[in-house]
């Protein structure tokens, strides 16, 4: 390492503990890079987790700071059986009220993040509809028509002679843009996509009074209701956060996914690679991190242009290597096959390779410490979003504007290229990377696991009914530095597929599975139970289907709805043998996602910690009572194997209720079954 770099390295003070790399992560590349960081004296989140322990009361969800008479701290010190719970804050707020308010504010934070992302995409969509942007086009007109129908926009017109004719596509685009944007703030009516849910689920929401009115209003109302001295009934608070979570899953997130698919293309399976080993020493490495694909779409196009590749070569590089982190990474992966550099917890490590010429960030899950790490290397750190800037003076802000998107993208790519020659630390890129097949969605699952003639989920349902597939799991969510990196994700997923449960994944769970090599069809023969292995082998799919980014959890909702529609597995999502999980969650977005899974009828288990443990009565309401209203409920389990088995037990309970529990006893296929599969 050059002398100059050594001087600039931020030293970890001697008295501070450092992480044990093997205890911190199960991934070898991550272990190597944590060790490398420690050798260089560069502090990472893994070291900080050793030195700062979480607040015991905050972890329980019973610290209130909603007014300046607090914080009022109400730790749970005795069992509920030991007598009445007399804990209260200065104003008299009970532990239930405080934990419910905190929980609801997490839903508000998560729903706002997804929904504001969706709004930004809708605004770009509007710019395209108004022909104000030349850089974006409608890439998937078929999806535009499907979305138009879901939003109630006519796609045909009556001609003078009384016949039906196709409506002008520009008119449809503009009306879709107007109606979609109005979903955030229309003064009356209800969220249009609520009707995309199975009818019985819609009726449950209607009866419970939780159909969202518009997206923004539900989030604002949480902030009002949880203000000091407003809503003091935990059940009523949960009602409001249910409205906001539905507005996220079936509103902001679903619109984000749909409009992104129309603008950038609906994903179909694509092969790529994952882990830090995708970076190349002799290439310009441009790492893109965050969540919104609006800019990254342009960056991919710019970096793949001959102009930019020639420029990189003229500067001594062999080419340009793009890599993604977090969900912007998932977006670029599923539409362009751009390899994934790592999960949430690997963002600092990508810079510590010494080969990251630029890291471009947009919104969400961006650790402020990457600016401090970037200072130790030559890496240009570029923020691009007006709502997400950093205070450190080495951060460059290039504000992205959809009206001159390609110019902004080229400017950023040029900056990375020109920085290639400035590498000053010895480059150390771990070799580890794995092949992955990603880019599944509602449409491609239909193609791979649907009926040949019906164009629905017939074959998937049939295989669930006959027991080859025991059930479906949605395993999603973040990494959390309070637990061993990726271990929860991988152990839960492996246990599920071993027990014939097919896994739909998004977010950092998808990246973790990719790094572990679980996103290839070949995995099935190694890790799956015999039934799931046979289905995967026959149709050529991995047992873990990567459906994209955090907002793409909406694809899981629609996939579950398709399963209901295909028939044979009950009338509602809560009837299907399905369960949800976030083994290593950390963000508020995960709580919002979990809550819209639960209120769609899905039993959902979280790992690491659960933010209501200090209020057992309120927690029981989430873990047990919600099932009576929506058919789904929360649960919590740290141990990954027990976590997976709680999900499997729920799946088996649903199989029994459907009367298909005996089918698993005769998993061996007869000729008729075999022909059915081969017809796919
Ligand atoms: Fe304490 Fe009540 Fe103020 Fe919360 S709102 S900080 S419980 S006085
Ligand atoms: S990126 S929200 S750490 S999944 Fe969507 Fe990963 Fe969680 Fe961010």
Structure description:
It is a single chain. With 680 residues, the protein is of the alpha/beta class. The protein has three domains: 95-264, Substrate Binding Domain Of Dnak, Chain:A, Domain 2, CATH 1.20.1270.30; 276-422, Rossmann fold, CATH 3.40.50; 435-658, Rossmann fold (3-Layer(aba) Sandwich), CATH 3.40.50. The protein contains 28 helices and 18 strands. A six-stranded parallel beta sheet has the order 8-7-6-9-10-11, with helices on both faces. It has a six-stranded parallel beta sheet with strand order 15-14-13-16-17-18, with helices on both faces. A two-stranded antiparallel sheet has the order 1-2. Strand 9 (356-361), helix 16 and strand 10 (380-383) form a beta-alpha-beta unit. It is globular, with a radius of gyration of 25 Å. Mean pLDDT is 94; it is low at 1-7. The structure holds iron/sulfur cluster (SF4) and Broken Fe4S4 cluster.
